[in-house]
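Dear Dr. H.,

I hope your travels went smoothly. While you were away I took the liberty of generating a structure for the chain from your last submission, since the lab meeting agenda had it listed for discussion. I wanted you to have the full record in hand beforehand rather than looking at slides cold. The sequence, exactly as received, is reproduced here:
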Amino acid sequence: MKEIQEVVKNLTNRYGKNRESLLPILQGITEEQNYLSSEAMLEIARALDISAAEVYGTATFYSFLDTIPRGKYVIRVCRTIVCDMHGKKQIIKTLEDLLKIKVGETTHNGKFTLLETNCLGWCHKGPCILVNDDIYTEITPGKVNAIISEYRNK
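The corresponding predicted structure, in token form, is as follows:
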């Protein structure tokens, strides 16, 4: 893992050091390090010359910006009523059984984190899940098994 100062420096070189650069820098760090550490948020505040509270407030406002360590693969299950009507609860139970964790937890080997999230925008093909940046729609328990097996073998 790169030193956080180097990561922030590379991101500020790409996006600039103005206030509008904050969100892409936060996204860049999350993409590279899987979460935003306190050290990272302080370094961003210093680099952009804004308060640490502003960085923290932005980081905790967006559900896709994590401020606690997550697994290598973050599985987000859509929590909308439409996905619920299409069997979301069965999908979550299947994921919990396969991964031996509950929603909000990370596997002991640090490979998977299971979360619920707001609408993923695929209501017409629910239930759906997102694994990092990959969307899976019209999910069934059988598809969940295949998806998890695929990621376990990566």
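Two observations you may find useful: Strands lie at 73-78, 112-117, 129-131, 134-136. The radius of gyration is 17 Å.

With kind regards,
E. W.
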